[in-house]
Structure prediction request, 194 residues.
Amino acid sequence: MMVKQERAARTRQALIRAAAEVFAEEGFALASLSMISRRAGVSNGALHFHFESKKALADVVQMEAAAAVTRMTDRAETADGALQVLVDATHGLMSRLADDNIVRAGFELCGDPARGDGVDLRRQWQHWIENILGRAEQEGLLADGVSPDSAAPAIVAATVGFEVLGFRDPEWLSEQKIIRFWELLLPRLAGGEA
Prediction:
């Protein structure tokens, strides 16, 4: 019994990883369940045993991506000061987008018009940035004249832009690009005490 459960869990994870790759490459509309089962090395029957539809599979990919982003932002929150947390999380997200098919597919699915619904990772990221900037304000780390409401749109737009551009050109997700972004923005964002 235990061996069957372990095999079923491995098959389910293989299907999720394969689906993430196919969704990231093809988009939701063009991805087919047979493509996903072939990529996972399992039969269509095995896929249907675990997932009732392509939508159900996409939902799981997005939920796993959302959980991965939450774990990454939670780890970043161990840094000293909210602005350092923000910088570290941005680096962490770009690294995950470059190296983790599930996170990349989760973001792609939330921007795919054929998908329609599901977890919106870009909105999750936006809310996290707004919250961490609110914390930076409470900690007195923001420059005079800078508020969370004025800074969040620029940071969200830039980081989501890196994500979108990085889909076709991984250089946009590179550590160097993110360092240059923060070298430009951080002096304007941070108060003298930061």
